[in-house]
Structures are given as structure tokens and as C-alpha cells.
Design brief:
Layout: E1 2-14, H1 15-19, H2 24-27, E2 38-50, E3 53-57, H3 67-73, H4 80-87, E4 97-99, H5 105-108, E5 112-114, E6 120-122, E7 128-132, H6 133-140, H7 152-161, E8 164-167, E9 171-172, E10 177-182, E11 189-196, E12 199-203, H8 226-243, E13 246-248, E14 257-263, E15 266-273, H9 275-279
Length: 281
């Protein structure tokens, strides 16, 4: 098994929105903002090569959006997903499965792309596309809070491709990958739990976007049910400490991974480092 990060774009979001009710005087000490109160988020997609399958979790923003859209989020590096794959020695045609943790634009926009003629075509022509049934239903009848994050130009090509497969409940996806659900951020978000040798890795997606979101009150204003997010996070963090999980961060521009520990203030970061560091220690 190989486990690798595949970087797509970087983008910016309002820091206050990313940390909800926590004041800037606290969160900015651990995750700095620029002069416009914007913070940088990575789009660090996950690639898992297991036997004859090459599984990509999430695909970034992609290149379908116009400059006005991109300017709102300070999106940079539209070709990084493809460049990152090639730099790792892989082609988009090698991907057998694309698993979308959820369908917000920054997690599924790169699944289809605009070619030079302006046509929307599959980025990964040999891949089966996966999403939870709950998230698919949620995205296609969006609530007012999330509507701007679910884009028809991302969803419609998936439906028309004939390659979309919907996951109804948590499942063992492969021998070493279990897909569990989280519902506080958005309905039916998938959190992959990966066994690798004697280690357990959890890919956080928007469940815990950065190491700065580990403390219990640090919940993004984007979450549709923040109280549920806190309950889900508490249960997961207890499990992660007990079983020494390695957390893999999709959005943390400062840290790729970390482990956790109990402290007098609750569960906090124990050790941080790169994916390579944790896989090889």
C-alpha cells in the first residue's frame, strides 16, 4: 500500500467564519490571518494505492470556475492537481476510484474539467465516482446555508457520467479502508479510516479542518449543525487518543498530520509532522 498527498489549489476563507464563535484574539495565535482577516487553506487530496486500485479522495476546486469566482476565494494553482499527480509518477488515467468526502465545490470541482475547447470532460476517465447517498440527496436539494457551495456544473456531469455510485451506509470500502460518516458539517460527509501496517490514519476533510480546530469550541460557522459537530468531534477525539490515530489534514496549510493526547484542558495536539514522517516512524 502507498499513501500520498496530492496537492491541488490553495485558497483563502474568512478567518472568523472558519472558527465560528471563537474570537480572533484566540484563534489567530495558532492560525494567522492576513490584513483582510483571510486565512490560507490547503487542498491536500489523498491518494491510496492498494493492490490493483488507485483511490483518490477529493479533487479540489478544478478549472471550471470563472475569474470572478476564483477571486472571491483567492484560488491559486488551478493545475496543481494534475501536476502533483505527474510529479508522483502517476497519470489521471491511473485512478480507478474517486471518493468524494462531500460535494462542496472545493472537494469535488476537479472531478470534471474544462478542456481547451471549453467542453467539460472527465478528469479521471477510468474512475468510478463515489459519494454517500445522504450527501448526494443533500447537495441536490440544498438548504439555504449551503446552496452556494453545491455547484450544478460539478454535480450534473457526475450524474450524467454513468459512473456515479452512492454509498448508503458506513462500509468497509477495501481491505484496509473503512468509510465512516459525519453529519455535523454537512449530511453524509465521508471520513476515511485507513489501516497501514500497525498504524491507523484518519483523513479529516472538513470534519476537523486544521490542527487549530482540535479544541472543542473551534467549530466553523459553515457547519450546518455545530452542536452535532462538537458531539461527533468529542467522540472521535476520544477514540483517536485511545487508539493512537494519525490525523491527516486536508486544509491545514501549516501542518500535514498530527497525533493527539489528553491534557488538563482536554484533548490537544501531541506531535505534528509530515505524512512521510508518521508513516516511517
Amino acid at each position: 500500500m502507498k499513501i500520498l498527498f496530492v496537492t491541488a489549489e490553495h485558497f483563502k476563507l474568512d478567518g472568523g467564519a472558519c472558527f465560528g464563535v471563537v474570537p480572533k484574539s484566540l484563534w489567530s495565535q495558532i492560525y494567522p490571518a492576513d490584513e483582510n482577516n483571510m486565512i490560507v487553506f490547503a487542498l491536500r487530496n489523498l491518494l491510496v494505492k492498494e493492490e490493483n486500485r488507485m483511490i483518490l479522495f477529493d479533487t479540489g476546486v478544478g478549472n471550471k470556475q470563472d475569474e470572478k469566482f476564483r477571486s472571491h476565494f483567492y484560488i491559486s494553482g488551478e493545475n496543481n492537481l494534475m501536476d502533483s499527480l505527474h510529479s508522483l509518477g502517476f497519470s489521471p488515467d491511473d485512478i480507478t476510484d474517486v471518493v468524494h468526502t462531500h460535494l462542496h465545490f472545493d472537494h469535488c470541482g476537479g472531478t470534471f474539467r474544462k478542456n481547451k475547447a471549453g467542453d467539460i470532460v472527465p478528469t479521471f476517465k477510468n474512475a468510478v465516482l463515489w459519494c454517500s447517498q445522504a450527501q448526494w440527496n443533500w447537495a441536490n436539494k440544498p438548504n439555504k446555508r449551503e446552496k452556494a457551495s453545491f455547484l450544478i456544473e460539478n454535480l450534473s456531469p457526475m450524474e450524467q457520467s454513468g459512473k456515479l455510485r452512492l454509498i448508503e451506509k458506513e462500509k468497509q470500502f477495501t481491505e484496509n479502508i473503512f468509510l465512516r460518516f459525519s453529519n455535523g458539517h454537512t449530511e453524509g460527509q465521508i471520513i476515511p479510516i485507513i489501516r497501514h501496517k500497525d498504524k491507523t490514519l484518519a483523513y479529516m476533510a472538513d470534519f476537523i479542518p486544521t490542527t487549530a480546530h482540535i479544541p472543542m469550541p473551534y467549530v466553523a460557522a459553515f457547519d450546518t449543525r455545530p452542536l452535532l459537530s462538537m458531539d461527533e468531534k468529542q467522540n472521535f477525539l476520544n477514540e483517536a487518543v485511545e487508539n493512537n490515530y494519525i490525523l491527516l489534514f486536508q486544509h491545514d496549510a501549516l501542518n500535514e498530520c498530527c497525533t493527539l493526547q489528553n491534557t488538563g484542558k482536554g484533548i490537544r495536539l501531541k506531535e505534528k509532522g509530515t505524512l512521510d514522517f508518521f508513516l516511517n516512524t
